[in-house]
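Worked example 2:
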Amino acid sequence: MRQQQRAWYWYDWANSAFVTTTMAVLIGPYLTVLAKRAACPDQPTSQVCRRDLMVLGVPIDPGALSSYTITFTTLVSAVLLILVGAVADRSPRPQWLVGAFAWCGAAAATAMFFLQGTSWQLGVLLLVVSNLCLGCSLVIYDGILVRIATPDERDRVSSRGWALGYLGGGLLLALNFVLLTVGEAHGLDAELAVRISLASAGLWWGIFTLIPVLGLRNLPPRALAEDLPPDAAPSRGPIRGAFAQLRDTFMDLRGYPQTLLFLIAYLFYNDGIQTVIASSSVYGAEELGMAQSQILTTFLVVQFVAFGGALLFGRAAARYGASQVVLAGIVLWALVVTAAFFLPGHSMLAFLGLGVGIGVVMGGTQALSRSLFSQLVPRGRESEYFSLYQAMERGTSWLGTLTFGLVHQWTHSYRWSIVAIMIFFVVGGVLLARVRFREGILAAGNELPQVV
């Protein structure tokens, strides 16, 4: 299985470039600029725009547009991802489904090159399509983890995948950093440099997806069809059976209370994580007055610190148990959010220190959460259950981004928006501490790892 594990890692490498360059760094501030230009054409985009955009008759603050777009994407994906997971559980070649969604999302991400002027509507459309496709591909990709790693291997395999993802995302971000800084010094238009960087993330995502798609051709068999509930039998056909399985998913969750409790806990603390990641570039640019080069430098540091953080958390999990390490990570996230509220403006050193704090806990908490959930998934329902998980995963959180956007719309301050996210870490941590993992793993019919 080692060869398949190595191939599996590469999808983290492929999609993390898009997550980092596009989602975390560039698209939020750039979409805000396009929206400000449309709402306030008579003032510089560096100033606060007090006019709203009208979206389907609803007034939208330009500064909250990217947060609302991610919120909308998640609401759409709530059913879509579960349906995709149910279909994937019937597919003999799930790696090709990963590729299909990845290449569709990569095409939309590459098309962001054409965003300019006041084309915020096109930006919203491409962001929705690429984010939905990312979520759909990750549902299937995460489900494959169960096929290629034993219970005792999953913390290590998941952590290495996340670590490689941060390394790949950091490498492309470094190349784009050179383009955005050196290019501007040699006369390259700043907006053109941003558009080229956005396109590069899409191309990177699409090209490197070839490695896992081809490398996972001979997957070990999944659970036999007779192990699945009767309503989910493949004889019902992929679509009809998927809807039957969608119904069964929610009915089954009642029989796995620890799995359900973990999902609810994850909903809260991961919404907090995703909101911090998605909003940090906007927070740095709009609230702290950081230059784009300073934000890029900080995110570069975050990527490479996160590479080490993911490996460090993986080793700690082998000794202390993944559940305890994730809980400690949530406490650290709460401290990071508190520090962000008090961060002084125009201080590169303080902003960089905040980035280091984020990098230490970011990869580890997410990687170990993925492996923890894999232990709680009923056998044979991996992609279907991971669709519930993925609906709360990176880039698809909605409670946090909605809170962030609403607080900014009410206060016109990103500081109050960021501190409002604290509630998600508090609630998520309290709920996670109540999960009885050993009971949940056994109830799902899985083998207990040596350390939980």
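Confidence is low (pLDDT under 50) at residues 223-235. The longest helix spans residues 2-39.
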